[in-house]
Specification:
heterodimer; A: mainly alpha; elongated; B: mainly alpha
Chain lengths: 278, 356
Amino acid sequence: MKLLKNLLRSPSFVLGMGLFLLTLLFALFGSLLTRVDVNTRVGLAYMPPSSEHWLGTDHMGMDMISLLVAGLRSSLYVGFLAGTVATFVGTLIGLYGGYKGGFVDDVLTVGTNLFLVIPSLIVLILLSASIENGRSLTLIALIIGCTTWTWSARAVRAQASSLRGRDHVALARINGYGTVGIVLMHIMPYLLSYIFMVFILQMATGILSEASISMLGLGPYDSISLGKILNEAKTNEALTDGAWWAFAPAMVLITVIVFALYIINTSLEGVFNPRLRK
Amino acid sequence: MLKNYPTLKHILGRAGWYFVTFLVAITINFFLPRLGDANPVDTMMARVSGGLDSASAKEKEEAYLKEFNLIEVDDTGKVQRDAQGKPVRTSLPKQFLNYLGMSMRGDLGTSILQHPKRVSEIIRAALPWTLALQLPTIVFGWLLGNVLGALAAYKRGVFDRVMYPLALLASAIPAFCFGMLLVYVLGIRLEWFPAVGGYDEGLTPEVSWAFFSSASYYYVLPFLSVFLIVVGGQAIGMRSMCIYELGTDYVKYAKLLGVRESRILFYMFRNAMLPQLTGLALALGTMVGGALITEMIFSYPGLGMAVLTAIQGNDYPLITGCTLLVTICVLVANFGVDIAVGFLDPRIRAAQRTGK
């Protein structure tokens, strides 16, 4: 409760959370705004916004609003799933390495740094390009999660290794707790807020990665995503035709989500870290 | 032997580490595309087999198999055959060794899409564009971002209140979105700058004034779209770093002593710079990735565009060639930053001196 009160007192948190909830609401209930689905042609290609179709139509003559709602849903889904996977893998490796220290830690650190240096987009391109058939949204999210975990492993490791010399950890060890028990019961609780912040950032990374990979034409075959809307607009000359409604709303949505997640992250830092609190 | 040259030892150590990273990268680069069932020869055959009878189609397929190093060839260049007369397929590990050897010689195979053209040729034409776009944007963006961030932290007030949200917004906009926006507004609507391409259509890349001026005109938009985002991201990092530095004892002490403001700023800047440099090393991969996609938005004739066309045409040799080269560039840049940190960080310098 006190945490919540502190959070609500931070203006940037309120702004970020507000923006995020707004996009979430749009994703959940946006389909009420329009009664057509994404597979129905409602008019000609690139019809400008009108009272009937508030954001016009795309190159196939589909209603932009319904496309945006579907795209936003997929993007949020990818962000959530990829963020969860990346945070899980990163936290696991970071906690274990940071607590264990010594040789295990060295090996894990070298491995993490290795994949930190190799651009994740490159690995993403190679993986997605090799899966020619069956590139579903879920698979893409999983792939993104498996390629973007590196920096969270690094960040969590630094935190965990600073906790490892604490007295309560030593006490737990004397009392016969195993590694798993200590990491889960005596180290992770201290880092929960930190891990949550990592998750927020990983979500943003996931959404951005999906958009990037879709821009390359390696997007999901089974769903519409914000990145795919942009890609279609680009390849179908929306830019030169002056059909701003075919790409600008998707751009705004991606930017708003990522912006919201970023400021949620920075405001959480201020709230969770009492030293930064005024 | 190296004990007396701690700096050299440090550099060699880092070089060794990066070499290992390179080996891992090249392994990934070879095996990931081969995870799926995609096969360059099938793609090639699908393109050319129309109108061929089965015998000549088979001959053609064998020629391609040979070209892409998928079957065993003896010293005289003849295809080795098994008892049924079928060509012997090269095993995957052996393919990998061949690939390693070829890559070390700078041979990245043949492009499928632009067939007989070598991948290395295509990359050689594209690489200068990518380097010319990305190196200055990242270096200058990093510098300007740091200066702005430090100023915002130091001055606070209006400057900070305007700059900080702007920087946050800039860092949240995906590079390709910003690129598309610039193309649409400045390129197509206002027609201030050419929207797509790297130079005027009638020209060919050469060392001439006409080409150079045309190329720099086309350079403005892609440069801006990456530059502003790098500036924003770096400014945020530097700002929080400097706010932390401002609260430290040495700054308070210097203020009490009445040290000149510019001098304090200099101290602070120097101290906050180091983590920023390390941060740059970590962020390089993401920045380069973002810039590659920006290249595609502008149809800029660099590696990003090459990757895009390669993906659209399932041109696997070209995809892996480009990704390998991008990885190498990022590794080299990282190595450079690492060495620079080694020279600038007094802690690492001290560790070098004592030989730890």
